[in-house]
Write a structure and sequence with these properties.
With 580 residues, the protein is mainly beta. It folds into two domains: 258 residues, Neuraminidase, CATH 2.120.10; 269 residues, Neuraminidase (6 Propeller). It is built from one helix and 46 strands.
């Protein structure tokens, strides 16, 4: 078995990790670029090495060395920590830990060795057997060696603590303290544990705190503490969260959401040795290795993390299908249901309370097969200064999709129940056929756009512009395509900003921003969307942009949430826009 030679660069002693710096620079305003794939993790020279990373860590000594581990299975116990070239992804070394069993290795870290040991050590977490294996780094990681673990920690939980629901993480601080998170549904009530040595030389996992790390699935799946022990990154399948690490605790009140690529097969995260950014890796093909660089030129996120500003009483709505902000009446939202009702609920955004109903006098001309989204934009007849409400009946329930968009003038008095005349019906088709569509948006120039509904991660999402072919008949023409960035089907909603300079697209596990110039919607989707701060809503299908462009809003429609919580994500003051 041959070994490629690393261009090993020994950093200055104690530059990172062996002692905590006097100050933690960059912690207050962390800025990182989007993750970019730069290599594929692979065996070198044809060696038969299994590559399915369930843990990733950077060397404590060499800037261009990363380590990874694989999760064990009933048939294959892989008890090797592999070393790879961080530039090329080639696997060229490894430590076979001979006295271990890989029941389920899921967390990896490199930090100073425990007391009575010198240098840096590799920490491996077997989450199934509650064991941490510790082995000292080799002086030449570009070699394959076999040796016993230098130390093995088997821990239990306190009698009153039932233990974690699951765990897929591990990180180690500058004093050799070992930590892990449990794995909670939706990231709600995640517990942080520290492994403590008892007087009788046994070990106990001691719960230190509980915090929410929102995700659409389970999480977290990985965590990494920077080598200077100042910054903690925590990964879920759809998010990456950042916490300053102070006094051996994450500062949860200063949590930030970092740019991330959603992927159900990404189980690993690791800080670079020099703190210049962090790596992530996929567990299954393609085994891509990505890097998120620290970049002071990257602007701060444009929105704050959402806060609940009110609760909207749903009944008689069965399910909230969409919200949109009024253009004529600032602070007013329009809300629709996807079943049973065929009127528009008018909501005071400041209070989060329904204030009136906007309905049709002739209900037979205004049916609800499966309404899915609502938008507000310039009136279809081109009347200057007039705005209309657009409702997309594009869902697949109850015999749908019917692919009809209802166009209704905005109400003239939002605080009074009003009746409107027969709405305009727009029937749209793609190549003459109906297709499922949830999201609808209207441009500042009055153009109407819909999206197809992609079922799987990576499936193509088409953006259609509706072109009139005569009367109320429209053809849906594809103008842009992008891969579904969500772990769930979508998109659920989309909005073009009243300021005409951005598009927001909502999935249940993420909201993405696309820059818009000169009403060029097709051009907006040529670049990847920017992931915005967002608390995942499994039952949240709705998105609105405030009429002054200073916030966006979502609402979660859980069956047991009465009323439904309305969340507001405020635009950060540095990025405030003026309506124009």
């Amino acid at each position: 078995m041959s070994s490629a030679v690393f261009a090993l660069v020994l950093l200055a002693a104690c530059a990172y990790g062996c002692q905590k710096p006097k100050s933690c620079s960059g912690v207050d305003k962390p800025a990182f670029g989007c993750p970019r794939s730069f290599a594929t993790i692979s065996s070198s020279d044809g060696d038969d090495i299994v590559v399915a990373p369930t843990g990733l860590a950077s060397s404590g000594t060499y800037a261009d060395v990363l380590y990874f581990i694989n999760g064990g299975t009933a048939d294959e116990n892989l008890n090797t920590v592999y070393a790879i070239n961080a530039d090329s992804g080639d696997t060229a070394g490894g430590i076979n830990i001979t006295d271990t069993v890989n029941v389920n290795w899921q967390g990896l870290a490199v930090q100073v060795c425990p007391e009575a040991m010198d240098g840096y050590c590799i920490y491996v977490h077997d989450v199934e057997s509650n064991t941490v294996y510790i082995v000292q780094e080799e002086s030449n990681p570009a070699s394959f060696v076999s040796k016993a673990a230098d130390k093995t920690i088997v821990y239990t939980f306190k009698n009153e603590d039932p233990g974690p629901r699951n765990s897929r993480s591990l990180f180690v601080d500058c004093q050799g303290g070992v930590y892990f998170f449990d794995d909670a549904g939706g990231g709600r009530g995640v517990r942080l544990y520290q492994i403590i040595k008892n007087d009788d030389d046994t070990y106990t996992a001691n719960p230190k705190l509980q915090l929410n790390i929102p995700t659409v699935t389970f999480g977290p799946v990985a965590a990494s503490l920077s080598h200077d022990c100042c910054e903690l990154v925590v990964k879920t399948e759809d998010k990456i969260y950042y916490y300053p690490w102070v006094d051996m605790m994450p500062q949860k009140e200063h949590a930030r959401l970092l740019p991330a690529a959603i992927n159900p097969y990404g189980q690993s995260i690791a800080w670079a040795l020099n703190g210049s950014g962090f790596f992530t890796a996929l567990e299954s093909a393609p085994l891509t290795l990505s890097f998120s660089p620290r970049n002071k030129n990257v602007p701060e996120t444009k929105f704050s993390l959402g806060k609940v500003i009110g609760g909207v009483a749903k009944p008689p709505f069965v399910e909230i299908a969409g919200i949109a902000a009024s253009r004529d009446h600032p602070g007013i939202l329009y809300m629709i249901s996807d079943a049973s009702t065929n009127y528009i609920l008018v909501v005071d955004m400041c209070e989060g309370q329904a204030i009136s109903k906007y309905s049709n006098g002739i209900e037979t001309s205004f049916s609800n097969v499966d309404w899915k989204d609502i938008a507000v934009g310039p009136s279809i007849n081109g009347m200057p200064g007039k705005n209309s409400i657009y409702i997309n009946d594009g869902g697949s329930d109850d015999g749908g999709p019917v692919n009809i968009i209802y166009v209704i003038p905005e109400t003239d008095e939002p605080y009074v129940n009003r009746i409107f005349e027969t709405p305009v019906h727009i029937s749209y088709r793609y190549l003459g056929d109906n297709f499922v569509s949830h999201a609808v948006m209207v441009g500042c120039d009055g153009e109407i756009y819909v999206f197809n509904y992609a079922q799987n991660f990576g499936d193509p999402v088409n953006v259609f512009r509706l072109i009139n072919t005569g009367g109320t008949n429209y053809s849906a023409v594809v103008i842009a395509t992008f891969p579904n960035p969500s772990l769930l089907p979508g998109p659920e909603a989309a909005k073009i900003s009243p300021c005409c300079d951005e598009i927001l697209v909502k999935f249940r596990d993420g909201v993405f921003e696309y820059s818009l110039k000169n009403n060029d919607v097709a051009g907006a989707f040529l670049n990847d969307g920017t992931s915005l701060p967002y608390i995942p809503e499994i039952d949240g299908s709705s998105l609105a942009i405030a009429s002054d462009c200073k916030a966006y809003l979502t609402i979660e429609d859980q069956e047991n949430s009465f009323p439904a919580p309305l969340k507001k994500y405020e635009r950060i003051s540095c990025c405030k826009k003026e309506n124009h």
